[in-house]
């Protein structure tokens, strides 16, 4: 059955707006002619080469491989941190000279400089060079991968899409409670794990289900399919729930290749995920290698980049940890040994079978039997309307509670019966009769609203107020004497009535705590579940800092910044002053994944740690004071 026909009954979400990228051709076009001449010369092109010609040359596999092989150790490390391990910046020159590695990458068109502030210049890698450069950097390690012959191959065609459909349906039927910091309550985890489709695999650490849940929740968040609902009514405990937002119908209706590519866009949940996919992506399609050798190669890449991996973690765990997201997305196949434990990986997308007729039948005992694995689109309808049957992954049971829950959710546009008929064809008469009976008393979800009501006492007074003093404050007339006004306008309404000789007598609004409403502020749990917008684009002005006279010298604009930079204050003192003033600070932080510049709101200093809200990550974090290389108070 076609996915678009099946999902015609499901409410569709609003289309997401495309995010702009930083392509190398666009960056070269915005550079100076002298800058392009230097890059063209470094690539062996004619001096007058255009931005399009240089950009096309940088996308040639042989040329990018030659560039990667010829990079110095410092330049290789900076490039690998971004292309393989997901760092956002190549380098940041903070009141000083850029590194030789950053200058080398800039000369070859692999990095571009942006002036972020008077004393900070950031180097960014073009977005369209991440994947080809990652493959070129990882390719030399593929010769160390050991070929393997597993007992059998396990495919997981679009397993993450099935998990997404099932978990979204579970949240549509019953929201999940959240803690203050946005974490899901532990008592909710078993229910969410049970909602995931059955999957037979012996994972040695028994954590595969937890990994799947973590991945799917992150994808739901970043795709804008869930949000946090906060109930903070006065006189009651604050209740935070993770509820569904937009429907995943449009996402699940994508063709298999597009859906797989969409899922792989979220392949950054692990530090090693990007490097692992680049490593096996350099192999010939169909090649099978051991997970242990993949882990050893990943460890070597990380160490060469300056990122240490705990020696207590086995090579197998490193390899499996880096590749399980790509496997669940259907990009690679997993090989298992005689005991059913993962042991190898094969580079080949999992085959997604196409069908022209329904692969499910409905029996008179209210059970739906899958004759073939359902598609993600079919999984969404099944998860909304049925309960899984323990020990029978291919059987789904219609129950009164599941059917009423699906009808009540309002997700199925034409109702449960129409959705199931689209799914399986003709339903047994007794099933149709029961479904209609179960759903007859279920009302569709209502959108209710509240209002601050001003009762004028009589109709003539209401007419006079509506046409006079309260003309700009009345939202709607609810009745002959009742006028709805905005809670935020109460003070203005009171003043307007006083000028007209009337007195406002507060009623239930003061009892409910809404007499003097504060401005709404984002809850911490809400901030945790905001969609990730990706790496921030450079906000500063693009610079052309290459010096054609001396290729190895420090670019002139950076030299001028370094010479004119004022003497910096002690970072700790700047932070302590900001805590006292309750203001923000710009810091340069040398973390495990490179040096970054962040805006933070410091809260407190606890021993060797600083607790602060990080505006770059949009969450509260802890920073080692010894790793703060510089700090400047924010002007605003």
- The poorly predicted ranges are 1-20, 509-521, 547-568
Give the overall average pLDDT.
79
Q: Which value, in Å, is the CA radius of gyration?
A: 30 Å
Shape: globular
Distance between the termini: 57 Å
Number of E-state strands: 23
How would you describe the overall organization of this protein?
The protein is an alpha+beta fold and 636 residues long. It is built from 26 helices and 23 strands. The strands form 6 sheets. It has a 5-stranded antiparallel β-sheet. A hairpin with a 2-residue loop joins β2 and β3. α6 packs across α7, α6 crosses α8 and α9 packs across α11. The chain is globular. The two termini are 57 Å apart. The relative contact order is 0.12.
The gist of it:
The protein has 636 residues and is of the alpha+beta class. The strands form six sheets. The chain has a five-stranded antiparallel beta sheet. A four-stranded antiparallel beta sheet has the order 1-3-2-18. The protein has a four-stranded antiparallel beta sheet with strand order 4-9-10-8.
Q: Tags for this entry?
A:
636 residues; 5-stranded antiparallel beta sheet; 4-stranded antiparallel beta sheet
Describe how the helices and strands are arranged.
Elements: H1 3-6, H2 24-29, H3 33-42, H4 51-58, H5 61-70, H6 73-83, E1 91-94, H7 100-107, E2 112-117, E3 120-124, H8 130-138, E4 152-154, H9 159-173, E5 176-177, H10 189-195, H11 208-222, E6 226-231, E7 239-244, H12 249-252, H13 256-264, H14 273-281, E8 288-290, H15 291-305, H16 315-328, E9 333-336, E10 342-346, E11 360-362, E12 367-370, H17 376-385, E13 386-389, E14 392-398, H18 400-409, H19 416-424, H20 429-440, E15 452-455, H21 459-467, E16 474-477, E17 482-485, H22 490-499, H23 508-511, H24 524-528, E18 541-543, H25 556-564, H26 571-581, E19 585-591, E20 594-606, E21 609-614, E22 619-624, E23 628-633
Antiparallel strand pairs: 1-3, 2-3, 2-18, 4-9, 5-7, 6-7, 8-10, 9-10, 11-12, 12-14, 13-14, 15-17, 16-17, 19-20, 19-23, 20-21, 21-22
């Amino acid at each position: 059955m076609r996915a678009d026909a099946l999902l015609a009954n499901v409410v569709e979400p609003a289309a997401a707006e495309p995010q702009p990228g930083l392509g190398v051709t666009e960056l070269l076009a915005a550079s100076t002619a002298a800058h392009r001449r230097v890059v063209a010369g470094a690539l062996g092109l004619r001096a007058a080469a255009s931005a399009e010609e240089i950009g096309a040359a940088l996308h040639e596999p042989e040329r990018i491989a030659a560039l990667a092989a010829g990079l110095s150790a410092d330049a290789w490390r900076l490039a690998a941190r971004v292309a393989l391990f997901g760092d956002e910046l190549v380098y940041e020159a903070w009141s000083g000279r850029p590194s030789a590695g950053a200058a080398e990458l800039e000369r070859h068109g692999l990095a571009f400089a942006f002036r972020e502030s008077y004393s900070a210049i950031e180097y960014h890698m073009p977005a369209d060079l991440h994947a080809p450069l990652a493959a070129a950097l990882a390719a030399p390690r593929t010769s160390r991968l050991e070929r393997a012959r597993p007992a059998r191959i396990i495919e997981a065609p679009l397993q993450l899409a099935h998990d997404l459909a099932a978990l979204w349906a579970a949240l549509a039927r019953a929201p999940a409670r959240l803690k203050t910091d946005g974490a899901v309550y532990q008592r909710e985890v078993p229910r969410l794990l049970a909602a995931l489709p059955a999957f037979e695999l012996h994972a040695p650490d028994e954590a595969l289900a937890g990994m799947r849940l973590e991945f799917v929740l992150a994808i739901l968040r970043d795709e804008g399919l869930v949000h946090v609902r906060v109930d903070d009514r006065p006189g009651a405990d604050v209740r935070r729930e993770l509820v569904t937002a937009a429907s995943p119908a449009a996402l699940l209706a994508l063709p298999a290749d597009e859906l797989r590519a969409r899922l792989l866009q979220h392949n950054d949940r692990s530090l090693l995920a990007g490097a692992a996919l680049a490593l096996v992506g350099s192999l010939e399609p169909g090649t099978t290698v051991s997970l242990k050798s993949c882990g050893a190669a990943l460890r070597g890449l990380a160490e060469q980049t300056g990122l240490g991996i705990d020696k207590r973690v086995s090579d197998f765990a490193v390899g499996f940890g880096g590749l399980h997201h790509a496997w669940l997305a259907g990009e690679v196949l997993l090989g298992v040994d005689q005991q059913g434990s993962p042991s190898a990986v094969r580079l080949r997308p999992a085959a997604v079978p196409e069908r022209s007729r329904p692969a499910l039948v409905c029996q008179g005992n209210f059970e739906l039997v899958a004759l073939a694995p359902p598609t993600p689109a079919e999984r969404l309808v099944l998860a909304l309307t049925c309960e899984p049957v323990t020990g029978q992954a291919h059987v789904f049971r219609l129950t009164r509670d599941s059917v009423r829950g699906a009808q009540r959710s309002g997700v199925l546009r034409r109702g449960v019966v129409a959705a199931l008929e689209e799914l399986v064809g003709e339903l047994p008469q007794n099933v149709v009769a029961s479904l209609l009976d179960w759903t007859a008393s279920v009302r569709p979800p209502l959108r209710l609203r509240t209002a601050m009501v001003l009762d004028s006492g009589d109709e003539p007074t209401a007419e006079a107020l509506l046409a006079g003093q309260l003309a700009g404050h009345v939202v709607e007339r609810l009745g002959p004497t009742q006028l709805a006004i905005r809670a935020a306008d109460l003070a203005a309404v009171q003043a307007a009535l006083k000028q007209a000789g009337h007195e406002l007598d507060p009623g239930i609004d003061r009892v409910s705590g809404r007499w003097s409403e504060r401005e709404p502020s984002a809850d911490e749990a809400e901030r945790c579940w905001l969609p990730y917008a990706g790496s921030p684009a450079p906000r500063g002005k693009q610079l052309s800092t290459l010096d054609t006279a001396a290729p190895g010298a420090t670019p002139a604009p950076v030299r001028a910044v370094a010479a004119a930079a004022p003497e910096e204050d002690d970072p700790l003192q700047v932070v302590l002053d900001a805590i006292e003033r309750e203001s923000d600070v710009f810091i340069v932080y040398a973390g495990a994944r490179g040096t970054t510049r962040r805006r933070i709101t410091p809260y407190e200093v606890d021993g060797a740690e600083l607790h602060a809200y990080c505006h770059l990550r949009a969450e509260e974090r802890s920073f080692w004071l010894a790793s703060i290389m510089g700090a400047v108070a924010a002007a605003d």
